[in-house]
Design a protein that fits this description.
Blueprint: H1 3-17, H2 24-34, H3 36-40, H4 43-59, H5 68-71, E1 78-82, E2 85-88, H6 94-125, H7 135-140
Antiparallel strand pairs: 1-2
């Protein structure tokens, strides 16, 4: 783990251990003020990640290139053909389109698994909660962990 990743991980751990609501933008500004020296050494990797995130965001945009939307409104502007590699949909081959489908299936599978785990925890927590009860309150009363 890089120094920056460790610093961010520690910082977020401290935020989550607190009792206050976390406003992401405010937390990021505080981190930058407190750790500017660490950030300076990692600008290239930050830019690379941001570019990847922007490619992903724009690739999923519903507005397809001119003409494509008339026939294939379900296709995004670009297709993720493997982790970290995106191709404009108009340049995709059959194999690329199938690889994009596999990427979407993997994302769906991960999301379904996360949702099921969330629901299982809700099933255990909600019977012990009213409108003002927090998860911390429930844990203090001794709810048992499922085996």
């Amino acid at each position: 783990m890089s120094t920056l990743s460790k610093s961010i991980s520690d910082y977020v751990g401290e935020l989550l251990a607190g009792d206050a609501e976390i406003v992401h933008a405010d937390a990021a500004e505080r981190f930058i003020r407190q750790h500017g020296d660490v950030i300076g050494f990692h600008v290239e990797s930050i830019v690379a990640r941001q570019i990847g995130a922007e490619i992903k965001r724009r690739s999923q945009a519903p507005a397809p290139p001119l003409g494509q939307g008339l026939l294939f409104g379900g296709l995004p502007a670009a297709v993720t053909v493997r982790a970290g590699v995106t191709k404009p949909v108009m340049r995709c081959t059959r194999d690329d389109l199938m690889a994009g489908l596999e990427q979407k299936d993997a994302n769906i599978s991960a999301a379904v698994g996360a949702r099921l785990a969330y629901l299982a925890d809700l099933d255990r927590l909600l019977p012990h909660m009213d409108d003002d009860t927090t998860v911390a309150d429930v844990l203090r009363t001794g709810i048992k962990r499922a085996s």
